[in-house]
């Protein structure tokens, strides 16, 4: 299957919502600096067709995450990361096999996989219960994997050592606080509006990797100005051209857009 789902999934079917969210994010056009139906954004190794293959490969795993969470729902939250990680790595391998080694959705697998896994553990599915459960599952993750390490083997470790940024780990441990803060300001009228609200506040590790803190602050200011002064399609197209020229891609905000769509659909 490609493209948007024919019908919106039930609000409690989190794996189906996660799949729909990835299609919604991909089809949203224009997306400044990101792959969409118009162009490849700031990516030379990715295009729309590659993302279609990636989504098709990883979405069958979402139901498996939920089933795994349900199967181990009797175990303490502190034990859950050890349980889910092998499946998360297998899902990543399915992505890499479909994309010839290109990282299209690693962040999305991490965030949406945790949401699906949490859905299998909670008694009642709600945006609040899922965020709380993800936070419980990831408690201490930043301390163990970033604070407790002096090396800089990964981009996340380097960014923490240099700038104190906690990246995807910190966002998950916080119960997706950045997404929840953006949703509080969002009127539900446009996914473009939600994306801009995320770009305005998210400490996006993708932007830092490409443009340092200067690149991150530039995109945050740009998004805030559009939100404050009003924007239309032409404004988004200009932002797209500017970010492509600067080789900036807010990929972390794209991942959080999918999370935000799931949480809003549950509400």
UniProtKB/TrEMBL annotation:
InterPro entries: CitG, TriPribosyl-deP-CoA_syn_CitG. Its EC number is 2.4.2.52. It catalyses: 3'-dephospho-CoA + ATP = 2'-(5''-triphospho-alpha-D-ribosyl)-3'-dephospho-CoA + adenine. Gene3D superfamilies: Triphosphoribosyl-dephospho-CoA protein. Keywords: ATP-binding, Glycosyltransferase, Nucleotide-binding, Transferase. GO terms for molecular function: ATP binding; glycosyltransferase activity; triphosphoribosyl-dephospho-CoA synthase activity. Signal peptide: none annotated. GO terms for biological process: prosthetic group biosynthetic process. Belongs to the CitG/MdcB family. PANTHER family: 2-(5''-TRIPHOSPHORIBOSYL)-3'-DEPHOSPHOCOENZYME-A SYNTHASE (PTHR30201:SF2), TRIPHOSPHORIBOSYL-DEPHOSPHO-COA SYNTHASE (PTHR30201). HAMAP family: CitG. This is Probable 2-(5''-triphosphoribosyl)-3'-dephosphocoenzyme-A synthase. It comes from Enterobacter quasihormaechei. The gene is citG.
């Amino acid at each position: 299957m490609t493209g948007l789902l024919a019908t919106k999934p039930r609000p409690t079917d989190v794996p189906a919502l996660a799949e729909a969210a990835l299609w919604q994010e991909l089809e949203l056009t224009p997306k400044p600096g990101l792959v969409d139906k118009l162009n490849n954004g700031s990516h030379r190794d990715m295009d729309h067709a590659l993302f279609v293959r990636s989504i098709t490969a990883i979405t069958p795993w979402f139901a498996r995450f939920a089933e795994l969470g349900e199967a181990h729902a009797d175990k303490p939250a502190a034990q859950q990361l050890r349980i889910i990680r092998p499946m998360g790595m297998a899902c990543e391998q399915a992505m890499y096999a479909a994309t010839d080694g290109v990282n299209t959705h690693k962040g999305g697998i991490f965030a949406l996989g945790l949401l699906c896994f949490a859905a299998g553990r909670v008694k009642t599915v709600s945006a609040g219960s899922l965020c709380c459960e993800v936070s419980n599952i990831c408690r201490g993750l930043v301390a163990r994997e970033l604070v407790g390490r002096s090396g800089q083997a990964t981009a996340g470790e380097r960014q923490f050592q240099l700038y104190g940024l906690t990246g995807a780990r910190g966002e998950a441990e916080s119960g997706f606080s950045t997404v929840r803060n953006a949703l509080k300001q969002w009127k539900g009228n446009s996914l473009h509006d939600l994306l801009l609200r995320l770009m305005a506040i998210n400490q996006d590790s993708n932007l830092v990797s490409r443009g340092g803190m200067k690149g991150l602050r530039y995109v945050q200011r740009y998004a805030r100005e559009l939100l404050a002064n009003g924007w239309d399609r032409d404004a988004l197209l200009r932002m797209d051209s500017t970010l492509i020229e600067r080789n900036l891609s807010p990929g972390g905000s794209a991942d959080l857009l999918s999370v935000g769509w799931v949480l809003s659909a549950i509400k």
